[in-house]
Amino acid sequence: MTEKADEPVKYYTLEEIEKHKTSKSTWVILHHKVYDLTKFLEEHPGGEEVLREQAGGDATENFEDVGHSTDARELSKTFIIGELHPDDRSKLPKPSDTLITTVESNSSWWSNWVIPAISALVVGLMYRFYVAED
Ligand code: HEM
Hints:
Elements: E1 11-12, H1 14-18, E2 27-30, E3 33-36, H2 48-54, H3 60-66, H4 70-77, E4 80-84, H5 96-133
Parallel strand pairs: 1-4
Antiparallel strand pairs: 2-3, 3-4
The protein binds protoporphyrin IX containing FE.
C-alpha cells in the first residue's frame, strides 16, 4: 500500500461505475478499488472477454480465483483510478467464500463439541448400565 498522502482518494459510486461497461470505457472493482482497464483489455493474457464480463461490477472473486501472479498484481496497480465509495461497499454481493467459511465454522463447532459430548454421555450411560447388571 503506497498511497501518496498529497493525493486525495477519488471515490466513485456504484451507480457511476456500472456505466463503464462498454468497450469505450471498461472499469472493474477489485478489493473496493476501481480499475480502468479500457486500455488493458487487448493486452490481458487472460483475454478481454473475461474482463468485459465483469465490467461495471465487482471482479474480486474471479480475479482471486485465477490466482494472478505477483507481476499481475503489480501491473494491476497501474490501472487504479480510485475507490468504491464507502457507502456503496455494502451493496456489493458478498463473496461466496465468506458464506462457506461461516457454514464450515458452524459445522466444525457442532462436530467438535456437541457430537463428542453426546457420544461420551451415551458411552458413559452404557458403561454404568453394564456395570449395574453384573
Ligand atoms: C487489473 C486487472 C488485471 C490484471 C493486471 C491482470 C493481469 C493478468 C496477467 C499478467 C495474467 C497472466 C498470468 C499471471 O501473470 O498471473 C493474467 C491471466 C489471467 N487473468 Fe487477469 N488480470 C486482471 C484482471 C482479471 C480479471 C478481473 C479476471 C477475471 C474476471 C482475470 C482473468 C484472468 C484469466 C482467466 C487469466 C488466464 C490464467 C491462465 O491462463 O492460467 N484477470 N491476468
